[in-house]
């Protein structure tokens, strides 16, 4: 019994050591990347005042052409469906199918759409 407990404790300590090694390796890699990035930034700005570097960056941004942001396709689709009452139409058709349980649901939907079109035409 004591041997089994020793194996479990030994296994747990090895797992902790592995996790510590992985963590240290990740920290070292992050430190190296940050040092390289900061070195590159230092090389670009060598001999310049920080305000000069920032002014150059600001000028570059101001000189760039403005690009209209792209609208999220999902929100664009939802807006279209809402503006044309498509969501309400499908909700009404689905509720009717579930309630009436027609033998031919597609024909039922087509007839319901035709009824809606006629009702809309008579109310104009």
UniProtKB/TrEMBL annotation:
It comes from the Eukaryota. This is TEX55-like protein.
């Amino acid at each position: 019994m004591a041997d089994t407990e020793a194996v479990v404790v030994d296994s747990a300590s090895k797992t902790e050591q592995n996790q510590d090694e992985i963590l240290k390796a990740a920290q070292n890699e992050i430190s190296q990347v940050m040092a390289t990035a900061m070195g590159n930034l230092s090389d670009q700005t060598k001999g310049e005042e920080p305000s000069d570097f920032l002014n150059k960056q600001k000028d570059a941004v101001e000189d760039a052409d403005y690009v209209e942001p792209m609208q999220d396709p999902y929100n664009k689709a939802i807006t279209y469906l809402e503006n044309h009452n498509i969501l309400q139409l499908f909700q009404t058709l689905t509720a009717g199918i579930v309630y009436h349980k027609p033998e031919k649901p597609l024909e039922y939907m087509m007839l319901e759409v035709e009824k809606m079109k006629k009702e809309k035409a008579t109310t104009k």
